[in-house]
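Archive entry. Fields below.
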Amino acid sequence: MKPERELEILIRAKYPILFVVSWEERRVESEVKSICEKLNRSMHTWSITQGMRPAVTRTSGPDKPSALSPELEALALAHEAPEYTVFVLRDFHHYMKDPRVSRLLRDLGQRLRGRSQTLMLMGPVLTLPPDLEKEVTVVDFGLPGADEIEKKLEQVLETVQDNPKIDATLTDEQRELIVKSAQGLTLDEIESVFARSLVETHRFDVNAILEEKKQIVRKSGLLEYYPAESKLKDVGGMEMLKEWLEQRTSSFTDRARDFGIPAPKGVLLIGVQGCGKSLLAKAIAAQWNLPMLKMDVGRVFGSLVGQSEQNMRKAISVAESLAPCCLWTDELEKGFAGLGGSGVSDGGTTARVFATFLTWMQEKTEPVFLIATANDVTKLPPEMLRKGRFDEIFFVDLPDLDEREEIFAIHLRKRKRDPALFDLRAVGAETKGYSGAEIEQIVVGALYRAFAKGRELEQTDLLEESRAIVPLSRMMEEEISWLRAWAEKRTRPSSDRKGD
Ligand SMILES: Nc1ncnc2c1ncn2[C@@H]1O[C@H](COP(=O)(O)OP(=O)(O)O)[C@@H](O)[C@H]1O
Ligand SMILES: [Mg+2]
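PREDICTED_STRUCTURE:
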Protein backbone atom coordinates (compact mmCIF):
# COMPACT_ATOMS: atom_id res chain seq x y z
CA MET A 1 0.00 0.00 0.00
CA LYS A 2 1.19 3.51 -0.71
CA PRO A 3 2.22 5.34 2.46
CA GLU A 4 -0.11 8.30 1.86
CA ARG A 5 -3.02 5.90 1.52
CA GLU A 6 -1.95 4.13 4.71
CA LEU A 7 -1.77 7.47 6.55
CA GLU A 8 -5.25 8.40 5.43
CA ILE A 9 -6.66 5.10 6.64
CA LEU A 10 -4.92 5.37 10.00
CA ILE A 11 -6.19 8.91 10.52
CA ARG A 12 -9.71 7.89 9.60
CA ALA A 13 -9.55 4.85 11.84
CA LYS A 14 -8.54 7.17 14.73
CA TYR A 15 -5.16 5.69 15.45
CA PRO A 16 -3.99 8.12 18.13
CA ILE A 17 -0.21 8.24 17.69
CA LEU A 18 1.75 7.58 14.52
CA PHE A 19 5.48 7.71 13.95
CA VAL A 20 6.31 8.47 10.33
CA VAL A 21 9.82 7.40 9.36
CA SER A 22 11.07 9.53 6.50
CA TRP A 23 13.90 11.79 5.39
CA GLU A 24 11.43 13.91 3.46
CA GLU A 25 9.55 16.34 5.69
CA ARG A 26 8.33 18.39 2.82
CA ARG A 27 6.88 15.49 0.94
CA VAL A 28 5.23 13.92 3.98
CA GLU A 29 3.73 17.21 5.09
CA SER A 30 2.33 17.98 1.69
CA GLU A 31 0.66 14.57 1.63
CA VAL A 32 -0.71 15.06 5.14
CA LYS A 33 -1.99 18.47 4.12
CA SER A 34 -4.05 17.05 1.29
CA ILE A 35 -5.35 14.29 3.53
CA CYS A 36 -6.41 16.92 6.10
CA GLU A 37 -8.18 18.95 3.43
CA LYS A 38 -10.00 15.87 2.26
CA LEU A 39 -11.00 14.79 5.77
CA ASN A 40 -11.73 18.25 7.04
CA ARG A 41 -9.12 18.33 9.76
CA SER A 42 -6.98 21.25 10.73
CA MET A 43 -3.28 20.55 10.54
CA HIS A 44 -0.71 21.89 12.98
CA THR A 45 3.01 21.47 12.52
CA TRP A 46 5.59 21.84 15.23
CA SER A 47 9.36 22.11 15.22
CA ILE A 48 11.81 23.21 17.87
CA THR A 49 12.71 26.31 15.88
CA GLN A 50 9.26 27.45 14.83
CA GLY A 51 7.01 26.17 17.57
CA MET A 52 3.42 25.26 16.78
CA ARG A 53 1.97 26.61 13.54
CA PRO A 54 -0.76 27.65 13.45
CA ALA A 55 -1.04 28.26 17.18
CA VAL A 56 -3.50 26.11 19.08
CA THR A 57 -6.43 27.29 21.17
CA ARG A 58 -6.58 25.24 24.29
CA THR A 59 -9.77 23.77 25.67
CA SER A 60 -8.41 23.81 29.22
CA GLY A 61 -5.21 24.28 31.17
CA PRO A 62 -3.18 27.36 32.03
CA ASP A 63 -2.73 30.22 29.61
CA LYS A 64 0.42 31.36 31.37
CA PRO A 65 3.76 30.69 29.72
CA SER A 66 4.66 27.13 30.51
CA ALA A 67 7.74 25.94 32.35
CA LEU A 68 7.88 22.81 30.25
CA SER A 69 10.59 22.21 27.69
CA PRO A 70 9.40 22.94 24.14
CA GLU A 71 8.84 19.34 23.07
CA LEU A 72 6.85 18.55 26.21
CA GLU A 73 4.88 21.74 25.69
CA ALA A 74 4.06 20.59 22.16
CA LEU A 75 2.70 17.33 23.53
CA ALA A 76 0.75 19.20 26.20
CA LEU A 77 -0.81 21.35 23.48
CA ALA A 78 -1.88 18.26 21.59
CA HIS A 79 -3.34 16.91 24.83
CA GLU A 80 -5.61 19.89 25.22
CA ALA A 81 -6.48 20.51 21.61
CA PRO A 82 -9.99 20.14 20.24
CA GLU A 83 -11.05 17.30 17.94
CA TYR A 84 -10.61 17.19 14.15
CA THR A 85 -6.95 18.11 14.38
CA VAL A 86 -3.77 16.51 13.13
CA PHE A 87 -0.48 17.41 14.82
CA VAL A 88 2.74 16.85 12.94
CA LEU A 89 5.75 17.09 15.23
CA ARG A 90 9.09 17.22 13.45
CA ASP A 91 12.40 15.67 14.52
CA PHE A 92 10.79 13.73 17.29
CA HIS A 93 13.33 10.93 17.00
CA HIS A 94 15.54 13.14 19.19
CA TYR A 95 13.14 13.09 22.10
CA MET A 96 11.87 9.54 22.18
CA LYS A 97 14.34 8.38 24.81
CA ASP A 98 13.25 10.97 27.39
CA PRO A 99 11.14 9.18 30.04
CA ARG A 100 8.91 12.25 30.40
CA VAL A 101 8.18 12.16 26.67
CA SER A 102 7.39 8.47 26.97
CA ARG A 103 5.02 9.08 29.86
CA LEU A 104 3.25 11.96 28.14
CA LEU A 105 2.86 9.94 24.96
CA ARG A 106 1.31 7.08 26.88
CA ASP A 107 -1.12 9.48 28.55
CA LEU A 108 -1.88 10.98 25.18
CA GLY A 109 -2.49 7.54 23.73
CA GLN A 110 -5.24 7.05 26.32
CA ARG A 111 -6.64 10.53 25.94
CA LEU A 112 -6.83 10.47 22.14
CA ARG A 113 -8.27 6.99 21.84
CA GLY A 114 -11.61 7.20 20.06
CA ARG A 115 -11.22 10.89 19.36
CA SER A 116 -10.87 12.34 15.87
CA GLN A 117 -7.45 13.61 16.61
CA THR A 118 -4.08 12.34 15.43
CA LEU A 119 -0.62 12.93 16.75
CA MET A 120 1.98 12.31 14.10
CA LEU A 121 5.63 12.19 15.12
CA MET A 122 8.22 12.43 12.42
CA GLY A 123 11.91 11.61 12.07
CA PRO A 124 14.36 10.03 9.65
CA VAL A 125 15.16 7.15 11.98
CA LEU A 126 13.10 4.97 14.23
CA THR A 127 13.95 4.99 17.91
CA LEU A 128 10.99 3.54 19.70
CA PRO A 129 11.50 2.65 23.36
CA PRO A 130 9.81 -0.65 24.32
CA ASP A 131 7.20 0.97 26.57
CA LEU A 132 5.78 2.78 23.55
CA GLU A 133 5.66 -0.15 21.20
CA LYS A 134 1.98 -0.79 21.82
CA GLU A 135 1.06 2.89 21.79
CA VAL A 136 2.67 4.07 18.58
CA THR A 137 1.96 2.91 15.04
CA VAL A 138 4.98 3.12 12.76
CA VAL A 139 4.58 4.15 9.15
CA ASP A 140 7.55 3.78 6.84
CA PHE A 141 7.23 6.57 4.34
CA GLY A 142 9.44 5.11 1.62
CA LEU A 143 11.19 6.95 -1.14
CA PRO A 144 9.13 8.17 -4.07
CA GLY A 145 7.97 5.55 -6.55
CA ALA A 146 8.06 5.59 -10.33
CA ASP A 147 4.77 7.47 -10.74
CA GLU A 148 5.83 10.24 -8.37
CA ILE A 149 9.17 10.60 -10.12
CA GLU A 150 7.35 10.75 -13.42
CA LYS A 151 5.16 13.54 -12.09
CA LYS A 152 8.22 15.46 -10.95
CA LEU A 153 9.87 14.96 -14.33
CA GLU A 154 6.71 16.25 -15.99
CA GLN A 155 6.77 19.37 -13.80
CA VAL A 156 10.41 20.07 -14.57
CA LEU A 157 9.82 19.52 -18.29
CA GLU A 158 7.01 22.03 -18.23
CA THR A 159 9.11 24.74 -16.63
CA VAL A 160 11.85 24.44 -19.26
CA GLN A 161 9.53 23.96 -22.23
CA ASP A 162 10.01 27.44 -23.64
CA ASN A 163 13.71 27.63 -22.98
CA PRO A 164 15.41 27.44 -26.41
CA LYS A 165 18.74 26.41 -24.87
CA ILE A 166 17.39 23.25 -23.37
CA ASP A 167 16.65 20.09 -25.24
CA ALA A 168 13.66 18.71 -23.40
CA THR A 169 12.55 16.11 -25.89
CA LEU A 170 12.54 12.62 -24.53
CA THR A 171 11.68 9.35 -26.17
CA ASP A 172 9.58 6.91 -24.16
CA GLU A 173 12.66 4.81 -23.60
CA GLN A 174 14.74 7.71 -22.32
CA ARG A 175 11.91 8.72 -20.06
CA GLU A 176 11.72 5.23 -18.58
CA LEU A 177 15.47 5.10 -18.09
CA ILE A 178 15.52 8.44 -16.28
CA VAL A 179 12.69 7.47 -13.98
CA LYS A 180 14.33 4.14 -13.24
CA SER A 181 17.70 5.64 -12.49
CA ALA A 182 16.22 8.28 -10.20
CA GLN A 183 14.65 5.67 -7.96
CA GLY A 184 16.25 5.57 -4.54
CA LEU A 185 16.56 9.36 -4.30
CA THR A 186 14.35 11.66 -2.27
CA LEU A 187 12.07 14.03 -4.16
CA ASP A 188 14.31 16.96 -3.25
CA GLU A 189 17.36 15.11 -4.49
CA ILE A 190 15.56 14.25 -7.71
CA GLU A 191 14.64 17.87 -8.27
CA SER A 192 18.22 19.01 -7.71
CA VAL A 193 19.74 16.35 -9.90
CA PHE A 194 17.35 17.15 -12.75
CA ALA A 195 18.20 20.82 -12.40
CA ARG A 196 21.93 20.09 -12.28
CA SER A 197 21.74 17.94 -15.37
CA LEU A 198 19.85 20.65 -17.27
CA VAL A 199 22.34 23.33 -16.27
CA GLU A 200 25.41 21.24 -17.04
CA THR A 201 24.40 19.44 -20.21
CA HIS A 202 21.24 21.29 -21.31
CA ARG A 203 19.35 18.04 -21.33
CA PHE A 204 18.39 15.15 -19.06
CA ASP A 205 21.49 13.10 -18.59
CA VAL A 206 21.20 9.66 -17.07
CA ASN A 207 24.88 9.70 -16.14
CA ALA A 208 24.41 12.81 -14.03
CA ILE A 209 21.66 11.02 -12.17
CA LEU A 210 23.81 7.96 -11.62
CA GLU A 211 26.63 10.18 -10.33
CA GLU A 212 24.24 11.60 -7.78
CA LYS A 213 23.33 8.11 -6.71
CA LYS A 214 26.94 7.25 -6.06
CA GLN A 215 26.96 10.22 -3.71
CA ILE A 216 23.95 8.85 -1.91
CA VAL A 217 25.58 5.46 -1.48
CA ARG A 218 28.66 7.17 -0.07
CA LYS A 219 26.65 9.32 2.28
CA SER A 220 24.68 6.41 3.62
CA GLY A 221 27.94 5.15 5.11
CA LEU A 222 26.68 1.58 5.12
CA LEU A 223 27.38 0.61 1.59
CA GLU A 224 30.25 1.35 -0.70
CA TYR A 225 30.58 1.16 -4.42
CA TYR A 226 33.11 -1.46 -5.25
CA PRO A 227 35.06 -0.97 -8.44
CA ALA A 228 35.21 -4.01 -10.72
CA GLU A 229 38.84 -4.85 -10.08
CA SER A 230 39.07 -8.60 -10.59
CA LYS A 231 37.79 -10.88 -13.31
CA LEU A 232 36.99 -14.57 -13.24
CA LYS A 233 40.22 -15.30 -15.07
CA ASP A 234 42.15 -13.88 -12.07
CA VAL A 235 40.78 -16.67 -9.94
CA GLY A 236 42.50 -20.04 -10.15
CA GLY A 237 40.50 -23.25 -9.90
CA MET A 238 36.82 -23.36 -8.85
CA GLU A 239 35.79 -24.58 -12.28
CA MET A 240 32.33 -25.74 -11.23
CA LEU A 241 31.54 -22.49 -9.48
CA LYS A 242 32.80 -20.48 -12.45
CA GLU A 243 30.66 -22.53 -14.79
CA TRP A 244 27.62 -21.91 -12.61
CA LEU A 245 28.31 -18.17 -12.74
CA GLU A 246 28.97 -18.11 -16.46
CA GLN A 247 25.70 -19.87 -17.09
CA ARG A 248 23.92 -17.01 -15.37
CA THR A 249 25.76 -14.17 -17.07
CA SER A 250 22.74 -12.83 -18.94
CA SER A 251 20.13 -13.74 -16.38
CA PHE A 252 19.42 -10.13 -15.35
CA THR A 253 18.32 -9.06 -18.80
CA ASP A 254 14.74 -8.56 -19.96
CA ARG A 255 15.39 -11.31 -22.46
CA ALA A 256 15.92 -13.75 -19.59
CA ARG A 257 12.71 -12.55 -17.92
CA ASP A 258 10.78 -13.09 -21.14
CA PHE A 259 12.27 -16.56 -21.37
CA GLY A 260 10.78 -17.31 -17.96
CA ILE A 261 13.97 -17.30 -15.89
CA PRO A 262 13.77 -15.69 -12.44
CA ALA A 263 16.63 -13.38 -11.47
CA PRO A 264 19.20 -15.27 -9.36
CA LYS A 265 18.94 -14.49 -5.64
CA GLY A 266 22.43 -15.07 -4.39
CA VAL A 267 25.27 -17.39 -3.45
CA LEU A 268 26.99 -18.19 -0.22
CA LEU A 269 30.67 -19.11 -0.43
CA ILE A 270 31.97 -21.08 2.51
CA GLY A 271 35.45 -22.40 2.86
CA VAL A 272 39.00 -22.46 4.01
CA GLN A 273 40.57 -19.09 4.65
CA GLY A 274 42.73 -17.64 1.89
CA CYS A 275 41.33 -19.79 -0.89
CA GLY A 276 39.86 -16.99 -2.95
CA LYS A 277 36.29 -16.52 -1.75
CA SER A 278 36.58 -12.74 -1.48
CA LEU A 279 38.53 -12.63 -4.72
CA LEU A 280 35.80 -14.54 -6.53
CA ALA A 281 33.04 -12.46 -4.97
CA LYS A 282 34.64 -9.33 -6.40
CA ALA A 283 34.78 -10.91 -9.86
CA ILE A 284 31.09 -11.79 -10.10
CA ALA A 285 29.82 -8.26 -10.70
CA ALA A 286 32.43 -7.68 -13.40
CA GLN A 287 31.50 -10.95 -15.07
CA TRP A 288 27.86 -9.97 -15.09
CA ASN A 289 28.39 -6.30 -15.90
CA LEU A 290 26.48 -5.13 -12.86
CA PRO A 291 27.35 -2.47 -10.31
CA MET A 292 28.76 -3.91 -7.11
CA LEU A 293 27.93 -2.71 -3.65
CA LYS A 294 29.64 -3.88 -0.54
CA MET A 295 27.78 -3.92 2.74
CA ASP A 296 29.75 -3.66 5.92
CA VAL A 297 27.61 -5.66 8.32
CA GLY A 298 29.59 -4.32 11.25
CA ARG A 299 28.73 -0.76 10.30
CA VAL A 300 25.06 -1.58 9.93
CA PHE A 301 25.08 -2.26 13.64
CA GLY A 302 25.30 1.44 14.38
CA SER A 303 26.47 2.71 17.72
CA LEU A 304 22.96 3.67 18.73
CA VAL A 305 20.76 0.79 19.69
CA GLY A 306 17.58 0.94 17.71
CA GLN A 307 19.30 2.47 14.73
CA SER A 308 20.67 -0.82 13.53
CA GLU A 309 17.36 -2.02 12.20
CA GLN A 310 16.85 1.27 10.46
CA ASN A 311 20.36 1.06 9.04
CA MET A 312 19.71 -2.39 7.68
CA ARG A 313 16.47 -1.30 6.08
CA LYS A 314 18.16 1.72 4.59
CA ALA A 315 21.04 -0.32 3.21
CA ILE A 316 18.55 -2.69 1.64
CA SER A 317 16.50 0.10 0.12
CA VAL A 318 19.58 1.83 -1.32
CA ALA A 319 20.70 -1.47 -2.82
CA GLU A 320 17.26 -2.12 -4.26
CA SER A 321 17.15 1.33 -5.77
CA LEU A 322 20.29 0.46 -7.71
CA ALA A 323 18.98 -2.89 -8.93
CA PRO A 324 19.98 -4.81 -10.91
CA CYS A 325 23.17 -4.98 -8.88
CA CYS A 326 25.31 -7.26 -6.74
CA LEU A 327 25.44 -6.81 -2.99
CA TRP A 328 28.47 -8.30 -1.29
CA THR A 329 28.81 -9.01 2.40
CA ASP A 330 32.22 -10.36 3.27
CA GLU A 331 32.67 -12.60 6.29
CA LEU A 332 29.00 -12.61 7.00
CA GLU A 333 29.37 -14.58 10.23
CA LYS A 334 31.21 -11.68 11.87
CA GLY A 335 28.30 -9.30 11.51
CA PHE A 336 25.87 -11.62 13.17
CA ALA A 337 28.25 -12.80 15.85
CA GLY A 338 26.00 -11.49 18.62
CA LEU A 339 23.46 -14.17 17.83
CA GLY A 340 23.12 -17.52 19.47
CA GLY A 341 23.80 -16.82 23.11
CA SER A 342 27.49 -16.01 23.00
CA GLY A 343 26.92 -14.14 26.23
CA VAL A 344 26.72 -10.78 24.52
CA SER A 345 23.44 -9.12 25.31
CA ASP A 346 22.37 -6.31 23.07
CA GLY A 347 18.70 -6.25 23.89
CA GLY A 348 17.81 -8.40 20.89
CA THR A 349 19.09 -5.87 18.36
CA THR A 350 21.25 -8.38 16.51
CA ALA A 351 18.38 -10.83 16.34
CA ARG A 352 16.03 -8.19 14.94
CA VAL A 353 18.49 -6.92 12.36
CA PHE A 354 19.19 -10.48 11.39
CA ALA A 355 15.47 -11.17 11.02
CA THR A 356 15.09 -8.11 8.80
CA PHE A 357 17.92 -9.39 6.63
CA LEU A 358 16.55 -12.93 6.42
CA THR A 359 13.08 -11.77 5.53
CA TRP A 360 14.50 -9.62 2.81
CA MET A 361 16.54 -12.51 1.41
CA GLN A 362 13.47 -14.68 1.37
CA GLU A 363 11.04 -12.19 -0.09
CA LYS A 364 13.05 -9.78 -2.17
CA THR A 365 11.63 -9.15 -5.58
CA GLU A 366 14.15 -6.61 -6.83
CA PRO A 367 17.05 -8.14 -8.77
CA VAL A 368 19.72 -7.69 -6.13
CA PHE A 369 22.16 -10.57 -6.23
CA LEU A 370 23.53 -11.26 -2.78
CA ILE A 371 27.08 -12.57 -2.55
CA ALA A 372 28.01 -13.67 0.93
CA THR A 373 31.24 -15.25 2.09
CA ALA A 374 31.98 -17.01 5.36
CA ASN A 375 35.05 -18.63 6.90
CA ASP A 376 33.61 -19.92 10.13
CA VAL A 377 30.40 -21.88 9.64
CA THR A 378 30.01 -22.56 13.35
CA LYS A 379 29.21 -18.87 13.86
CA LEU A 380 26.75 -18.80 11.00
CA PRO A 381 23.12 -18.95 12.13
CA PRO A 382 21.51 -22.14 10.77
CA GLU A 383 18.52 -20.18 9.41
CA MET A 384 20.90 -18.65 6.93
CA LEU A 385 21.52 -22.02 5.31
CA ARG A 386 17.91 -22.99 4.86
CA LYS A 387 16.60 -23.56 1.34
CA GLY A 388 15.23 -20.54 -0.44
CA ARG A 389 17.66 -17.98 0.96
CA PHE A 390 20.49 -18.58 -1.49
CA ASP A 391 20.31 -20.23 -4.88
CA GLU A 392 23.34 -22.26 -3.95
CA ILE A 393 25.91 -22.71 -1.20
CA PHE A 394 29.38 -23.46 -2.51
CA PHE A 395 32.29 -24.91 -0.62
CA VAL A 396 35.71 -23.58 -1.54
CA ASP A 397 38.38 -26.08 -0.59
CA LEU A 398 42.17 -25.88 -0.66
CA PRO A 399 43.35 -26.02 -4.28
CA ASP A 400 44.45 -29.36 -5.71
CA LEU A 401 47.61 -29.83 -7.78
CA ASP A 402 46.14 -28.58 -11.07
CA GLU A 403 44.61 -25.61 -9.34
CA ARG A 404 47.82 -24.71 -7.54
CA GLU A 405 49.64 -24.65 -10.86
CA GLU A 406 47.01 -22.35 -12.25
CA ILE A 407 47.23 -20.02 -9.23
CA PHE A 408 51.04 -19.88 -9.52
CA ALA A 409 50.65 -18.96 -13.17
CA ILE A 410 48.12 -16.23 -12.39
CA HIS A 411 50.35 -14.60 -9.81
CA LEU A 412 53.48 -14.85 -11.91
CA ARG A 413 51.68 -13.27 -14.83
CA LYS A 414 50.35 -10.55 -12.54
CA ARG A 415 53.99 -9.68 -11.78
CA LYS A 416 54.99 -9.70 -15.43
CA ARG A 417 56.73 -13.09 -15.43
CA ASP A 418 56.11 -15.73 -18.09
CA PRO A 419 54.80 -18.88 -16.33
CA ALA A 420 56.08 -21.06 -19.17
CA LEU A 421 59.64 -20.41 -17.96
CA PHE A 422 59.03 -22.28 -14.71
CA ASP A 423 58.28 -25.89 -13.84
CA LEU A 424 55.00 -25.22 -12.08
CA ARG A 425 54.22 -28.92 -11.75
CA ALA A 426 57.18 -29.20 -9.40
CA VAL A 427 56.30 -26.19 -7.22
CA GLY A 428 52.69 -27.31 -7.30
CA ALA A 429 53.72 -30.69 -5.92
CA GLU A 430 55.82 -29.00 -3.28
CA THR A 431 52.87 -26.93 -2.02
CA LYS A 432 50.26 -29.50 -1.09
CA GLY A 433 47.90 -28.02 1.50
CA TYR A 434 48.78 -24.39 0.66
CA SER A 435 46.00 -21.88 0.05
CA GLY A 436 45.83 -19.45 -2.85
CA ALA A 437 46.83 -16.63 -0.53
CA GLU A 438 49.93 -18.59 0.53
CA ILE A 439 50.83 -19.31 -3.07
CA GLU A 440 50.67 -15.60 -3.79
CA GLN A 441 52.88 -15.03 -0.78
CA ILE A 442 55.41 -17.55 -2.19
CA VAL A 443 55.56 -15.75 -5.52
CA VAL A 444 56.14 -12.41 -3.80
CA GLY A 445 58.67 -13.88 -1.38
CA ALA A 446 60.55 -15.53 -4.26
CA LEU A 447 60.73 -12.20 -6.07
CA TYR A 448 62.34 -10.67 -2.97
CA ARG A 449 64.89 -13.47 -2.86
CA ALA A 450 65.84 -12.98 -6.49
CA PHE A 451 65.95 -9.22 -6.19
CA ALA A 452 68.24 -9.40 -3.15
CA LYS A 453 70.60 -11.62 -5.12
CA GLY A 454 70.58 -9.15 -7.98
CA ARG A 455 69.25 -11.55 -10.62
CA GLU A 456 66.06 -12.61 -12.37
CA LEU A 457 63.52 -14.90 -10.68
CA GLU A 458 64.39 -18.61 -10.87
CA GLN A 459 62.72 -21.91 -10.15
CA THR A 460 64.85 -22.37 -7.01
CA ASP A 461 63.48 -19.15 -5.50
CA LEU A 462 59.95 -20.49 -5.77
CA LEU A 463 60.93 -23.85 -4.30
CA GLU A 464 62.94 -22.38 -1.43
CA GLU A 465 60.22 -19.94 -0.56
CA SER A 466 57.65 -22.75 -0.61
CA ARG A 467 59.65 -24.68 1.94
CA ALA A 468 60.10 -21.63 4.11
CA ILE A 469 56.37 -21.08 4.58
CA VAL A 470 54.29 -23.27 6.85
CA PRO A 471 50.76 -23.40 5.51
CA LEU A 472 47.94 -22.61 7.87
CA SER A 473 46.26 -25.87 6.91
CA ARG A 474 49.01 -27.85 8.64
CA MET A 475 48.14 -26.24 11.95
CA MET A 476 44.44 -26.44 11.33
CA GLU A 477 44.23 -29.96 10.01
CA GLU A 478 41.46 -30.97 12.38
CA GLU A 479 39.32 -27.93 11.69
CA ILE A 480 39.66 -28.37 7.96
CA SER A 481 38.69 -32.03 7.93
CA TRP A 482 35.73 -31.19 10.16
CA LEU A 483 34.71 -28.42 7.75
CA ARG A 484 35.03 -30.78 4.78
CA ALA A 485 32.77 -33.32 6.39
CA TRP A 486 30.29 -30.62 7.30
CA ALA A 487 30.34 -29.19 3.78
CA GLU A 488 29.92 -32.51 2.09
CA LYS A 489 26.36 -32.82 3.29
CA ARG A 490 25.31 -29.23 2.94
CA THR A 491 27.08 -27.55 0.07
CA ARG A 492 28.06 -27.94 -3.53
CA PRO A 493 31.77 -28.24 -4.28
CA SER A 494 33.29 -25.34 -6.23
CA SER A 495 35.58 -27.71 -8.11
CA ASP A 496 35.85 -31.45 -8.66
CA ARG A 497 39.19 -31.89 -6.96
CA LYS A 498 40.75 -34.85 -8.64
CA GLY A 499 43.88 -35.06 -6.62
CA ASP A 500 45.65 -33.29 -3.83
N1 LIG B 1 41.99 -19.35 -6.17
C1 LIG B 1 42.80 -18.28 -6.20
N2 LIG B 1 43.27 -17.80 -7.36
C2 LIG B 1 44.09 -16.74 -7.39
N3 LIG B 1 44.48 -16.06 -6.32
C3 LIG B 1 44.04 -16.46 -5.11
C4 LIG B 1 43.16 -17.60 -5.00
N4 LIG B 1 42.89 -17.77 -3.69
C5 LIG B 1 43.53 -16.79 -3.03
N5 LIG B 1 44.24 -16.00 -3.87
C6 LIG B 1 45.05 -14.83 -3.50
O1 LIG B 1 44.98 -14.64 -2.11
C7 LIG B 1 44.34 -13.41 -1.79
C8 LIG B 1 43.43 -13.58 -0.58
O2 LIG B 1 42.38 -14.47 -0.87
P1 LIG B 1 40.88 -14.17 -0.42
O3 LIG B 1 40.04 -14.07 -1.63
O4 LIG B 1 40.86 -12.99 0.47
O5 LIG B 1 40.57 -15.49 0.39
P2 LIG B 1 39.30 -15.80 1.31
O6 LIG B 1 38.33 -14.71 1.13
O7 LIG B 1 38.83 -17.12 0.84
O8 LIG B 1 39.85 -15.89 2.71
C9 LIG B 1 43.60 -13.04 -3.03
O9 LIG B 1 43.44 -11.65 -3.13
C10 LIG B 1 44.48 -13.59 -4.14
O10 LIG B 1 45.51 -12.69 -4.44
MG1 LIG C 1 37.83 -13.35 2.55
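CURATOR_NOTE: The chain has a mean pLDDT of 88.
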